[in-house]
DNA sequence: TTACGTGCAAAATCTTTGCCCCTGA
DNA sequence: TCAGGGGCAAAGATTTTGCACGTAA
């Protein structure tokens, strides 16, 4: 439990967004200029393995990290590009029932417009 | 329509698997040793944009390409690591109904064991 | 002919790793 | 003390791109 690890964990926990490793690195650098990229990645992967954070792997985009360790889905806003939480239940069962396969896991990321971007943009 | 592009398209169409760019490159190299990696990527992306093939983007793994342009899902076998087709209907509606969002698209990849790997392995 | 595609190689992006030193318990 | 973690930098994996030349139409 070094100050670097604590810092990284804190950044993730305090952010309302889902940050990428790079974003976390830049944020960490502000508070601990000597921190190295390798350290950020090492700790991120470690914390994810230990279940303290969740690694969000999405197609074609850098991995992001989530303080919320309760399984849930995510969606990308096609307008602003941000990643949001999506509360979705029963996908696994849906897949199992339709295919008859024993689903071990899955990765789902949805693309749609977030609430903010759906608001009419005032002139 | 150069011979390189035809070759790449043919490799994808003749393969029963879903090949990665690297695999396609090696295969192409056998028949056209002078072909360059850049050419393979360029053509793959071009053909995907034009709708001649499908780009399969999955979390944490290299992009693969599919001759089947009819939308469908894929799953990875957790045993042998191969990528297979998965016929699944109504996922989009399932997501829309549960979330009330206007789903523009999604990426889903499932992890389970393929039929072959589920067979008891003879000694 | 001539514009588009190719080959080559460098670069860009994202992530991991080896190695040696430092630090926290 | 001393082992695990950090810093640095190089390497790895995948993909893109600039440029000059070749080739199909």
CATH architecture of the largest domain in chain A: Orthogonal Bundle
Low-pLDDT stretches of chain A: none
* Rg calc of chain A: 17 Å
β-strand percent of chain A reads: 15-25%
Beta strands of chain A, count: 6
How many domains make up the 3D coordinates of chain A? 2
Biggest beta sheet summary of chain A: 3 strands, antiparallel
Number of alpha- plus pi-helical segments of chain A: 5
List the helices and strands and how they pair.
Two copies of one chain form a homodimer.
Chain A: H1 3-14, E1 19-20, H2 21-31, H3 37-49, E2 54-58, E3 61-66, E4 73-77, E5 83-86, H4 91-99, E6 105-112, H5 115-118
Parallel strand pairs in A: 4-6
Antiparallel strand pairs in A: 1-3, 2-3, 4-5
Helix pairs in contact in A: 1-2, 1-3, 2-3
The structure holds a DNA duplex (25 and 25 nucleotides).
Account of the protein in words:
Two copies of one chain form a homodimer. Chain A has 123 residues and is of the alpha+beta class. Chain A folds into two domains: 3-66, Winged helix-like DNA-binding domain superfamily/Winged helix DNA-binding domain (Arc Repressor Mutant, subunit A, Orthogonal Bundle); 73-118, Dna Ligase, domain 1. In chain A, 40% of the residues lie in helices and 24% in strands. The first copy, chain A, contains five helices and six strands, in the order H-E-H-H-E-E-E-E-H-E-H. In chain A, the strands form two sheets. Chain A has a three-stranded antiparallel sheet. In chain A, strands 5-4-6 form a three-stranded mixed sheet, with no helix packed on it. In chain A, a hairpin with a 5-residue loop joins strand 4 and strand 5 (83-86). In chain A, helix 1 crosses helix 3 (37-49). Chain A starts with a helix and ends in a 5-residue tail after the last helix. Chain A binds a DNA duplex (25 and 25 nucleotides) through helix 1 and helix 3.
